[in-house]
Design a protein that fits this description.
about 190 residues; mainly alpha; Rna Polymerase Sigma Factor, Chain: A; Arc Repressor Mutant, subunit A; 10 helices; transcription; transcription regulation; RNA_pol_sigma70_r2; RNA polymerase sigma factor
Length: about 190
């Protein structure tokens, strides 16, 4: 008789083999397999893009589409050394960061900090409770991207620095800046 753990392991192995088969079909140009891969992963990719774009729905949707265009082109680069979701997460982060940089004036947005009164209006819901996500969305873009990648997505500063073409120290400084701004806006100075 199999234990619960053995059953779960067997189910995971089956799912992993099915995913590898699906990926191979996509590599061979199977559009139906690509559509299935898209359907299974679009939620995760869009969520990441939404956080990285600071809640800009239109930009997040465009970035999500760009991720899947690049996925179609780069699926051959997936070697299976890591889980597909991990690889896709990395591709999504890189593509989204690049897409954002191309779409808007990078330096213009970097220093665009909302005043505290406007910030307070946006961040407080109708019940007067603070919406942390609203604060994250209001961070200057570069600080927000580093904050999301490090604090929420779990990337190391070395990875963020490479992804965003900056020094490791700059990544750490942007993260520190984001934390300070959020603490100030929430009244935890």
């Amino acid at each position: 008789m199999q234990t619960q753990g053995q059953i779960i392991d067997a189910e995971q192995q089956f799912a992993d083999r099915a995913l590898l088969t699906l990926i191979e079909q996509v590599r061979q140009g199977d559009r139906q397999a690509y559509r299935q891969l898209y359907t299974e992963h679009v939620g995760m990719v869009h969520g990441l893009c939404y956080r990285l774009t600071g809640g800009d729905r239109a930009l997040a949707e465009d970035a999500t589409q760009e991720v899947f265009i690049q996925l179609w082109r780069k699926i051959g680069n997936y070697r299976g050394d890591s889980k597909f979701s991990t690889w896709l997460h990395s591709v999504s982060s890189n593509v989204c960061v690049s897409y954002i940089r191309k779409q808007r004036g990078w330096w213009q947005r970097m220093f665009n900090i909302e005043d505290s009164a406007a910030m307070q209006e946006t961040a407080e819901g109708s019940t007067g409770e603070v919406d942390i996500e609203a604060y994250v969305q209001r961070l200057p873009e570069r600080a927000r991207m580093v904050f999301v990648l490090h604090a929420i997505e779990g990337y190391r500063h070395e990875e963020i620095a490479e992804m965003m073409d900056m020094a490791v120290g700059s990544s750490k400084a942007q993260f520190h800046r984001a934390k300070q701004l959020m603490q100030e806006w929430m009244g935890y100075e």
